[in-house]
Structure formats: structure tokens, C-alpha cells
């Protein structure tokens, strides 16, 4: 028995793989390597190279590796870029999820943990987002993740009376940072931490996007959560599904208070010892002012908690990136 991790050669997915194997579970990776790296996959874990859009490949992988559940991390994850590439975003995130569910049904695989996003909420009109807060995504990316949640819900309803009813949960989070393994780091050209790290390594001034948001210091506020904590929550959800325990349809993996981009920049200076004042560029389309969520429900069911301070998150990410050369 094993768990298939789609996107398991990526930054988040490879941490999920490590958390699975660390919990004594068997992991199999499916990744098209469009952004993932083979070197991020542990040597004792099977890597199947291919796309989640390849229906035959997905089903064959499920069958050949006796998969009992899927942790679906693969997808196009850039909210700002999704505004310019909506069709690509929907193909990867909506059609990809539909194909995975179809292949799961054909292979009698009934457990799935879906990597969703706090982007499903858009710009909330409440100070602290809860699971039932109104969903008003402000980008094609956020819309695609919300549709993914609907697909899981509808397939669960459709299979409820079958021999293998779908059991599912969606984990919503926003800015995933840091590293829990020095050989793995965030390679995204669009995420804040790698943007800053690459600038510092190149001896240039980091750039942030917008300082006129409706927040106390003008920079947007997010839940910055450590990738190792996120990975552990995925494994806890997988275990809960596999054991048949009750599970919620969705959990917010939130910090409860959030951090602004300026606060992150201040931590970057403290941790790296490199003094700088970031340049300010224009806002990115689709970026809301503030998204901060409570993690109370996930704390109850998935042992979710913030195990790292902001300086620890920055330090682990910085050290992993520097060790890569």
C-alpha cells in the first residue's frame, strides 16, 4: 500500500514525500518536472515522470503501485501569473484534478488530500478567515482551486453509495516558506522568499510588489507557514482518511495573526545580516490586501500548529538556498 504524491518533485510536494516516509508510509511521486526537480525526490522513492493530464498514466501508476490514496499537490500555483494565463491555469488545476478523480474511480482508490489555497477566499471582509468564510476568489488561480474543492465534493456525493466512496479533504494555505531539508528549497520565481534570496545572492536590492495596500504598513499581509509544518498536516490528513476517522471537507492551515511583507523584509535583514531597503514595484494583479486564517479546526484534527518563528522560517530557507550553491 502506498500514497501517490502528485507534484512530489516540487518544493512542497517533496517535503510531503519526506514527511510520509518519515511516518513509515510508502510514497510514490508523479511529476512532469515542469517546475519540480528529480534531485528533490529521495533516492528510495519511486519517481514516475509524466503529467496529471495523462489519464492512462495516472491510472496505470495507481494500479502498479497499489496506491491507497492520493495527495494532490501538482498544479499551476501562481495567482498573479494566472491572470495572464487563465486557460493554462484551468487546464492544469481543474482538468488535472478531474482526471485524477476519474483515474482514482477506475482504480478503486478512494482517499484524496487536495492541496487547495487560501486564494479561494479572495479578499475576505472579516479579520480572521474561517473554513465557512465566503469564497470570492480574485484570480483564475483561486477560482481553479475552489472548483477543485467542488469536484471532490461532487464526486464524494456521486460515489457515496458505491463500494469505494470517495473520502477527501482540502487543505488551504497561502505563503509556504522555509525548508525542512537542506537539499530542498523554493525554486519559484514568483514567491517572496526566493525573490529576496536570489537578489541578495546576486548583490542586488530585493524588490517587493506594492506598498499601498490597505494594511497598517502598506504591504500585504499573509499567513506565512513553514513548509515542514504544511507537510506534516498533509500526512496527518492522509492517516485520518486511511483509518476511516471522521474528517472535515476543508481545513485552513493558518497562523491566526499573519505577517506583512515589511515584517518579512525586517526578518531577512536580521537573519542574513545584509542591510537593505527593498525597492517597491507595482502591485501584482489578483493579490488581495490581507488573508489571515485561523487554524483551530486543523489543530483539533491534524495536530496543526506553527512550530517555527519568522526568523526560523527565514533562516531555514536561506540556509537551504545557500547550500545549493
Descriptive overview:
The chain is α/β, with parallel strands linked by helices and 325 residues long. The chain folds into 2 domains: 2-176 and 224-252, Rossmann fold (3-Layer(aba) Sandwich), CATH 3.40.50.720; 177-222 and 255-292 and 306-323, UDP-galactose 4-epimerase, domain 1 (Alpha-Beta Complex), CATH 3.90.25.10. It contains 10 helices and 14 strands. The strands form 4 sheets. The protein has a 7-stranded parallel sheet with strand order 3-2-1-4-5-6-11, sandwiched between helices. Strands 12-9-14 form a 3-stranded mixed sheet. The protein is globular and about 60 Å long. The two termini are 37 Å apart.
List keywords for this structure.
alpha/beta, UDP-galactose 4-epimerase, domain 1, seven-stranded parallel β-sheet, three-stranded mixed β-sheet, NAD(P)-bd_dom_sf, NAD, UDP-glucose 4-epimerase, carbohydrate metabolism
